[in-house]
Amino acid sequence: MAKSNDAVLLARWRAETPGCAARVHLNNAGASLMPGVVKDAITGFLGREALEGGYEAADAAAQEVADTYAAIGALVGAAPRQVAVVTSATHAFAQALAAFDFAPGDVILTSSDDYISNQLMYLSLARRLGVRIVRAPDAPEGGVDVDAFSALLASERPRLAALTWIPTNSGLIQPAEEVGRRCREAGVPYLVDACQAVGQLPVDVGALQCDYLASTARKFLRGPRGIGFLVVSDRALARGDAPLLVDMRGARWTEPDAYALVDDARRFEQWEFPYALVLGMGVAARYAAEVGVARGSARAHALAARLRERIGAIPGVRTLDRGARLSAIATFELRGRVAREVMLALRGQGINTSAQSRGDAVIDFDRKGATSQLRISPHYFNTEDELEVAARALERLLA
Length: 399
Hints:
alpha/beta; Aspartate Aminotransferase, domain 1; Aspartate Aminotransferase, domain 2; 2 domains; 4-stranded antiparallel beta sheet; about 15% strand; globular
């Protein structure tokens, strides 16, 4: 693509993102800036609810809701019937876990870099049901050791394997497709947390060979908060997988003491639905497809690499990212400083970043010898000039 075309596209993306005019937003791993069309879809539907009534507006938007399922499916290589709309990636992950009748001694095989909420759910299952958590070791360069993971699949015979594709606490990209291949060969169900991947990486659930994929709308997909989705494979549906507690969305009450599951992924949904956010997520998925996830990914990753080089050279800063392949999330230890205090100071200057502490990723922080970190996560609509603004502001704060 010619440089002139790149400049035109960048200008267009920024013009379509009202938040770009007010501040430097480098917290896309937390919640990205919504394009104007996403905001308009949400507020437009809320207006319809106010004028028409909630049930009536929902009925009138039935086709738009169906289009959301199709847009999400197209984005990740799934059929619309395989998509369940839920409130968050954590809710999606929990619904997938709830489909398994864990018994004492059952093993969940995972990595040391799984997201905090996922780790807490594993620990809760261990405390309540006697499930064993087995964490595969890392490769020397960082990221889960696939051969070690494969050996544990054979020796532990886990009930479930689970992996966070891109951990929230690191720039690491896990080898999720290769892990999926090993799980399929071993016949072990596979759950992927793609919360930071959707919108940042091209996603194909067929290539991942996963039984479940959980994600949110608010991060690199650039949708609203409070909404996400779960992709459920045909294998899982055919097995009769369903969450422990289904409601009238996911099943039909057929007899006083009997019910029948719906035949698609809606069995993982709940009847009460935030329709405005659902429509916003659909528009965000179509916007991502129009931009081109591969194109946006290449730019975001290049910006993050530049940040690691520029900010990592500032005295008193240590770059923490490890892995054979790195994402658009860059993390830094600020020696002698609490990252949250620096984050708030940057925010006061109109620069959005994020801060994390040991409690967000105990294993990863301990092995890196860090207690807090500043997380900076650019996206394709950010500019090189914005990176320099952030770097200079950080230099002044650390001087």
